[in-house]
Specification:
There is one protein chain. The chain contains three helices and no strands. The protein is mostly helical. The mean pLDDT is 81.
Length: 62
Amino acid sequence: MDILYLMILCSVSLAAIFLVVFIVYARKGQFEDDESPAVRILFDSGEIKEKEEGNKDKDEKK
């Protein structure tokens, strides 16, 4: 019966650790853009570089 308590404690603590890590990365914006990496392979490399340079110019203007 003691092993059951130990396993419950380990699983709950592991779940809490994953929850904390998820919240930290969600606040940093890690999960905001989930569509562009999937379609990035469909573009030519020149188009990607132009778009990235355009985004940098927009960020500098702000």
